[in-house]
Amino acid sequence: MTTYIQDGIQYSISDGSVSSVSTSTLWLTVAPGVGSFSYSYTSPQVPGTPTPFEFDAVGTDFYGIALDGVFVTDPARESLFQQVTWGGGNVSYVMTFELAANPGVVYLFYVGGAPISLTTPAAVEDFLQNSTFEDVPAGTQYSQGAPIDLSAIPGIDLTEHDLIVGSGLGDTLVGGVGNDRILGEGGADSISAGSGFDAVFGGTGSDSISGFRGNDRLFGEAGADLLNGGMGSDRLYGGGGFDTVTGGNGNDLASGGRGYDRVNGNGGNDTLNGNAGNDTLNGGDDDDVADGGIGEDLVIGGTGRDMLRGGAQDDVVRGNGGWDTVNGNDGNDSVYGGNGNDLVRGGGGHDVVEGGNGADRLFGDTGNDTLTGGGNSDTFVFADGHGADAVTDFDALDSGEQIDLSNVTAITGFTDLSNNHMTQVGADVVIDTGGGNSITLLGVSLSDLDVSDFIF
Predict the structure, then answer these.
(1) Percent helix, percent strand, percent coil in the chain, to nearest 5
(2) What PROSITE patterns does the annotation carry (predicted)?
């Protein structure tokens, strides 16, 4: 897209006279390759009465106008293209706009002819009272249907930083080069931000939004949206609805918002948030931070050293590859470290905690938890109030496998443990840690345990 920007004025009318005047900016956004526009009257011309007009593009699409950065649709404005005769025969050409949402304010922009300078209420009042405003005569340079060269308008600037606004229908919007602001509005839109640092708002409807190059900000808003950040370090927000949010390459911040969302980091060191709803988060490659938020979530780290957190309800959290920090947080969670030397915590609730391959540190935390170290030499860590926990695969004959009781105040050392807290119950060893809390080492013989198996 290409945007032409021109400075003009806006003046306010109160009690029949001009009360204030200030600068204003007009944005005209057209498709690539369009350098001219024309206009058409929207009703039959009546001599002595200004006739409203609408824009046409010469070549291809005309995407619309914005006043002071706010897009204005045809039904929300009255547009006039007029010839003005003033000051003893000077002739100028102006566009004026009045907005339904801002009554009593007129926006005026100079297009050509004799130059106009209006900077005070008195100057505008004099110009209005002592000038003749009429439709542009047919067959002249600025008449209806004649192509008007945008670059020839005095004071106009060309920029690739576009403001593009869709309709209430399903639109296809493309930002192109430059730092664009794109508003999908209603309907199921397909939006590509293009290169540059862009901000895209899908609006209502189930939208497909792609950031492409640049560090983009993509907002799905309402509806079941598909967001893809592409290259660059992007910020993506799904909003309401069941969204699929993918960061792409780069260090991205991706949030599902409300609803049952799928949030993917892909490449880069990403930060993922599920927020509300039962979400699926996948960090992908590199070192990611993922938080499931409220709801019953599936949180997957992928490769890299990830920090994963389940959230408030019953979650499944998997570290997969890399040396991960995995925390189920509240709820009855299933927490897996995966490959690598992981720190795995169940958090509150009755959790299933597994280390996987690697030398892992496992914490049941509070609640009645089941802990499994997996391959290699693992450390099982307990503290006061940990609940009634079970360790499924403690290897008493592995010199590197240990039970950490350093934060259990009821047990002072191995002698105290052996004499007062640890007993054989069938095929298992049960350790009474005080206050109704216990650790059951499944399938372990008391005679195989010695001081090297514990940390005090």
Answers:
(1) 5, 45, 50
(2) HEMOLYSIN_CALCIUM (PS00330)
pTM of the model: 0.71
Distance CA 145, CA 136 (A): 11
Report the alpha-carbon distance of residue 378 to residue 394 in Å, rounded.
8
The residues, ordered by sequence, that sit 6+ positions from 339 with a Cβ below 8 Å of its Cβ are 320, 321, 322, 356, 357, 358
For 129, the enclosing helix (H) or strand (E) is helix 121-129
**Cα-flanking dihedrals φ and ψ of residue 128, to 5°?**
-70, -40
Locate 84 and state its tokens: 């003005």
Domain boundaries, the chain: 2-159, 377-456
Which among 213, 171, 176 has a CA at the least distance from the CA of 188?
171
- With 90 as the cut, is the pLDDT of residue 88 above it? no
Beta carbons within 10 angstroms of residue 35's beta carbon: 17
- How many Cβ atoms from other residues are within 10 Å of residue 313's Cβ? 18
Q: Give residue-wise pLDDT tens across range 366-379.
A: 999 999 999 899 99
Bridge-based pairing state of the strands 422-425 and 428-434? antiparallel
Neighbours of 69 (CB within 10 A): 9
Which is nearest to 245 in space by CA: 197, 286, 290, 198?
290
Residues in the chain: 456
Report yes or no: 269 and 287 within 8 Å, Cβ to Cβ.
Answer: yes
